[in-house]
Amino acid sequence: MDDDRFDGMYMNLAGSVGGIDPLLDSFFGFLRRKTDFFAGAADSSMPRNKVLEAFQKNQERANEDAREKAAKDKK
After folding, report:
1. How does DSSP classify residue 58?
2. CA atoms within 13 A on the CB side of 48
3. CA of 49: how far to CAs of 26, 41, 69, 75, in Å?
4. Which of 5, 21, 26, 53 shows the greatest Cβ crowding within 10 Å of its Cβ?
5. DSSP SS3 for 3
6. Which residues contact 2 (CB under 8 A, 6 or more apart)?
7. Global pTM?
8. Is the CB of residue 11 less than 8 Å from the CB of residue 17?
9. Cα-only R_g, the chain
10. What's the pLDDT score for residue 1?
């Protein structure tokens, strides 16, 4: 999902907490405190797998974006 509706909020939050690592820590803390993301998983590996799936999907998109930019710059 390439949804830029929340980009401003994320940039503000990243600036408020001081960068990427604290942003991720804050996000996972939210999931821990306010959702059943960790505690409600039937399989203890489910949370890790969901995070890896989202990471891999976005890594692939980042790689494709880089390839498209390189091809555009080459022209």
Report:
1. H
2. 3
3. 19, 11, 30, 39
4. 26
5. coil
6. 61
7. 0.78
8. no
9. 16
10. 60
Q: Are 23 and 14 in contact (CB under 8 A)?
A: yes
Which residues are CB-neighbours of 13 under 8 A, at least 6 positions away?
A: 23, 26
Residue by residue, what is the 3-state secondary structure of 11-34?
HHHHHHHCCHHHHHHHHHHHHHHH
Q: 38: closest CA among 21, 23, 46, 24?
A: 46
* 15: amino acid identity, one letter: G
* Token reading at 74: 């080459």
Q: Contacts for 11-19 with beta carbons within 8 Å, 24 or more apart?
A: none
